[in-house]
TrEMBL record:
The keyword Nucleus does not apply. The lineage of its organism: Bacteria, Pseudomonadati, Pseudomonadota, Alphaproteobacteria, Hyphomicrobiales. PROSITE patterns: HEXAPEP_TRANSFERASES. Gene3D superfamilies: Hexapeptide repeat proteins (2.160.10.10). Pfam families: Hexapep. This is Chloramphenicol acetyltransferase.
């Protein structure tokens, strides 16, 4: 077994709503790892346009998504271009409309609202219609429940839910999480992953460590 080609756009021929994003997204400010997929009944081809919002190259922020992530229909990544200056009395972006309204605008009042890159680790599951706000980091193995609004970083192997999303459960105890992060199976060669699927999708950490 060698597994599917991560560069194939539609890896399930009879189920074209699922697509490996690495072969579908060409935007230079979006990085996506092997085997990460998006599932949408209208097709995954427009992931960058539909799901990654307010992402303007001149801002410089990146959306970085790891390997083996599962992203459900309607998930949204709100990027830094959505932010407004908040240091004055009004948050209205007068300057973008020009005709004299841009005069006197201090770009620093807007740039200080930037939150940096948005980062998903490996093996992350994003539920249907979840919203990820700018600058958030979601740790390896985390799960974001459907319709959650993620405003802060999510620890590895946490399950978060709600608006604003909060940790409702850790998937494993601290010791097991440490061992999982050390094993980092997602960085193994695909041939090794294919040989050890039972250990990866099982729940015996010793068996997984034996394959490292």
């Amino acid at each position: 077994m060698i597994g599917p080609n991560p560069n194939i756009k539609h890896p399930i021929p009879m189920h074209t709503r699922v697509g490996f994003l690495k072969g579908l997204v060409t935007a230079p400010n979006i990085e996506i790892g092997d085997f990460t997929y998006y599932d949408d009944p209208d097709g995954p081809d427009k992931f960058a346009e539909r799901c990654v919002l307010h992402h303007y190259p001149f801002i410089g922020d990146r959306l970085i998504i790891g390997k083996f992530c599962a992203i459900a229909e309607g998930a949204r990544f709100i990027m830094n271009g959505a932010n407004h200056a908040m240091s004055g009395f009004s948050t209205y972006p007068f300057n973008i409309f020009g005709h004299g309204w841009e005069e006197g605008f201090d770009p620093a009042t807007w740039s200080k609202e930037l939150r940096g890159d948005t980062v998903l680790g490996n093996d992350v599951w994003i539920g249907m219609e979840a919203v990820i706000l700018p600058g958030v980091t979601i740790g390896h193995g985390a799960i974001v429940a459907a319709k959650s609004v993620v405003t802060h970083d999510v620890p590895p192997y946490a399950i978060v839910a709600g608006n604003a999303a909060k940790v409702v459960k850790m998937r494993f105890d601290d010791r097991t999480i440490w061992r999982l992060l050390a094993a980092a199976w997602w960085d193994w060669p695909v041939e090794k992953i294919s040989r050890n699927l039972n250990a990866i999708r099982g729940a015996d950490i010793s068996l997984l460590e034996a394959a490292v």
